[in-house]
């Protein structure tokens, strides 16, 4: 692989950046013609999704509708049909857009990102995939985003473990009116035992910080408890207390995002379980 090359997946982020001259790659490597990067397959304990699978393919996949309905349901509310037909899973995760949908969804389902490069192959749990870094800028710190993908690596596929038992999932977001990105997006996956107690939970947030993150305080509040409206409200309020730097823009200040996060988490949890609870 050429060290100066830039990989082209769906192109919905790269091509506009090239058009505006923000990025001027010396070489482009188009990944579209590599069949090994495509396809959705089910194994005995996991679903495998190729890096070049588009959002539209996820949306219409009968396999995913049966095994992991959160993914097709979430794909329906990602931007518009034109974007969904071009944007790829691998490209979206590699881009790690702060308001992107797939990073939060991948966190909620405990995805594993598979990479191939000049030094071989490796599998990275999604909890270790996104990184936030700060650099000195003027009178403060500039917060940037990145992933663990090395310059010499490419995402080949994503595997999602199949969780046994009664698993409830949902994805809810407040959509940016122009871009379709999430001003606040909440992805929830939880499992209930026979006594209606939550024994496993993952909650992921996008749009609120410079990278998607898990609402660990809310998760800890839910695990081991019998689900009720009161517990949902308590867990939702804890989400606004996560130790992250909330971002802001002309469409929503950091204070607005912090205030709206508990609201959307409560709605997402209620949708995942049953709306009559709250």
List keywords for this structure.
4-stranded antiparallel sheet; about 280 residues; 13 strands; alpha+beta; 5-stranded antiparallel sheet
How would you summarize what this structure contains?
The chain is α+β, with helices and mostly antiparallel strands. It has helices at 14-19, 55-60, 62-67, 70-75, 81-84, 89-95, 102-108, 216-222, 229-239, 254-273; strands at 5-8, 27-30, 40-42, 46-50, 112-117, 120-125, 130-137, 140-147, 153-161, 166-175, 182-192, 198-206, 213-214. Helices cover 29% and strands 31% of the residues.
Number of helices: 10
Sheet bearing the most strands, described?
A: 5 strands, antiparallel
Task: Catalogue the unreliable spans.
Answer: 134-144
User: Count the strands?
Assistant: 13
Structural Rg:
19 Å
Structural class: alpha+beta
- Give the topology string: H per helix, E per strand: EHEEEHHHHHHEEEEEEEEEHHH
Strand content: 25-35%
Biggest sheet strand line-up: 3-4-9-5-6
- For the residues shown, what is the average pLDDT? 86
Distance from first to last alpha carbon? 54 Å
C-alpha geometry = globular
What is the percent of helical residues? 25-40%
Structure description:
It is a single chain. Strand 1 (5-8), helix 1 and strand 2 form a beta-alpha-beta unit. The termini are far apart. The chain has helices at residues 14-19, 55-60, 62-67, 70-75, 81-84, 89-95, 102-108, 216-222, 229-239, 254-273, and strands at residues 5-8, 27-30, 40-42, 46-50, 112-117, 120-125, 130-137, 140-147, 153-161, 166-175, 182-192, 198-206, 213-214. It is built from ten helices and 13 strands. Helix 8 runs antiparallel to helix 9 and helix 9 (229-239) packs antiparallel against helix 10 (254-273). It is of the alpha+beta class and 278 residues long.
